[in-house]
Amino acid sequence: MRPVSTAARPPAPADHHAPPGALEIPKPLVEVEAPRRRSPAEEARTLVAGATLGTLASLSEGGDPWGSLVTYGTLDDGTPVLCLSLMAEHGRNLAADSRASLVVASADIGPDPMNSGRVTLAGHAEKPEGQELEAAREAHLRAVPTARGYIDYGDFSILVLRVERVRWVGGYGRMDSADAAAYAGAEPDPVAPGSSFAVSHLNEDHADTLLVMAQALAGFTDATAARCTAADRYGLDLTVETPRGRSWTRVGFAEPADSPDGLRPATIELARRARATTPA
Q: What are the two backbone dihedrals, phi and then psi, of residue 168, each rounded to the nearest 5 degrees?
């Protein structure tokens, strides 16, 4: 067996030591209140709820990390449900050592993949029992209907990943951790399924309104153009062009959008507020 390294990890750098000016971006010319964002736990739950495919990391017999592609469903609290075979190495790995992590990446990847969302859920894989087993089986089949063809084979087992640690990355400069309780207590963003369409619609048909939002509500009074990059239940993320250069900002809804069809009225209210704030 290969010996396990006991060397201490090097300390994390205090900053990126970026070249002069590399991290300088234009700031708002008018001070505004920071709008609400999704919490790290909400971000994680939203990413996990929006996919059924992830990368499972387990420990092989020699202690080496082993990554494999797996499908999953989720219980009501976001617990991932796996259906794995002992004929597969990851199934044998977890039977011997239950420590595991699951990486889920956003399906909405732009020109820079490293500037997209992903989350790592770390914990232990266990076989559920009783009513939880029934709930886990149904959760997996809802997410992965094709699993019905093999879920009852004798070499397959249903496992739940007991989440103990969560690490979310939303792109450059946006990352945070959450504990198991925060993850279980959060909920997926209800407007996430329709957000990509909404972003495209805003950029294609309402660029002038986005510019007014950036000027009136985000404090970029010298903005010359604005583009929406993301929409969630709390507001819109914008890229703003100014004579001072490009910047990034956010405008918040008056009230959270709490239903799948709530994004449109929340955005309309935001536009009305922006235009009412703009001097005649």
A: -110, 140
Q: Are 249 and 207 in contact (CB under 8 A)?
A: no
Beta strands in the chain (DSSP E): 53-59, 65-71, 73-74, 80-85, 99-105, 118-126, 156-171, 174-179, 225-232, 235-242, 245-252
Q: How far apart are CA 258 and CA 270, in angstroms?
A: 16
HSE toward the beta carbon, residue 33, CA cutoff 13 A: 5
Distance of CA 67 to the CA centre of its chain: 20
Span 181-235, pLDDT tens digits: 999 999 999 999 999 999 999 999 999 999 999 999 999 999 999 999 999 999 9
Q: Are 212 and 194 in contact (CB under 8 A)?
A: no
**CATH, domain range 191-277:** 3.20.180.10
3-state SS, residue 236: strand
CATH number of 42-185: 2.30.110.10
Calpha distance 185→253 (Å, rounded) = 23
pTM of the model: 0.89
Question: Where are the chain's structural domains?
Answer: 42-185, 191-277
**Cα 102 to Cα 67: distance, rounded to the nearest angstrom:** 9
Instruction: Find out whether 55 and 66 touch, Cβ atoms under 8 Å.
Output: no
